[in-house]
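# step 3/5: fold
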Amino acid sequence: MRKHAKIGGMAILFVVAAFFLAACGESADTPGREADNPAATAVSADKGAVKSPPSTAVKPGGWSRAEYENTVFMIPPDWKAMGDTGIWCPGDQNMNMGRPKVSLHCGGIPVMPNSSVEDRLKFYYGMVPTTLQKFKRCGMNARIVDVTIHGKRHLGLILEEKTGPMMVLNFFDCQAPEGEFDKYMGRFKKILDSVSCQ
């Protein structure tokens, strides 16, 4: 296993905790600014595309560098980390009632030898998401997934980390209410495009 690709750790615990949280919060994200970064177009909505979204070296104007386990990524200037939960969201939202409606959630899901990647993605999302792209990131197999469930649409980056006989699915999941998702798509693409390993 490559040292720079090791992510695992406490992230698995956050996945279990996430299932006990109900989503809430109001959107504070500002739509319409996605055009300031050409990398935002790298995540294609075309099913079956195999071109890898880039790991952006230059952060979009005003965005901040964030870290989770052994990964780094960029978040919008008006977003904040929610403690050590692996969740980032717009500044006026909180976790009083669970995961904020507009947010990024990072973590890891173990894939045991007798289960499949699809089984574990179904465990996290509640249904098997559509894979939009497959590529390599951080020396690992990676994919962009898209799913709408319980009134929320998710766009996620999944990194498949091999750890001996099993695998860990490291996820970076962006979500927003289904009816509002399009106005956040540009920002979600930038976040996922920027993920890289330390």
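# step 4/5: annotate
The first strand starts at residue 64 and ends at 68.
# step 5/5: archive (pending)
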